[in-house]
Amino acid sequence: MSSMYDFSYRGLEPKRIKVLASHTVIEEMSPVIPSQMAFEVTDFGFHLAHNNLKQTKQEAIDASCFVFETIILGYNSCSVAFVGYL
Questions:
Q1: What DSSP string runs through 28-72?
Q2: What is the pLDDT of residues 19-69, one digit of tens each?
């Protein structure tokens, strides 16, 4: 499946990018994610108990940063777990 977004214009190779996203966001993103791009979907249970989401996502970021050049975070505002990351 080809993506309507061309990541190569920024020198980004899809195989060097990983998407970490919620189920809701990944459904919206999936039509435009190139087939060679890795992605990880957060367990839906974190919507109910998001206190552990920040730690879980930090662990996923830490584990991915040695393999991928770029990590894209895809979450809605219902998840306050990323407040303070920027």
A1: HHGGGS-TTSEEEE--GGGGT-GGGHHHHHHHHHHHHTTT-SEEE
A2: 998 888 888 888 888 888 899 988 777 666 666 777 888 888 899 988 998
Q: What is the pTM of this model?
A: 0.72
**Could you give the number of structural domains in the chain?**
1
2 within domain boundaries? no
- Residue 57: give the domain boundaries: 7-81
Length of the chain: 86
Cβ distance 18 to 60 under 8 Å?
no
Q: Give a yes or no: residue 86 inside a domain.
A: no
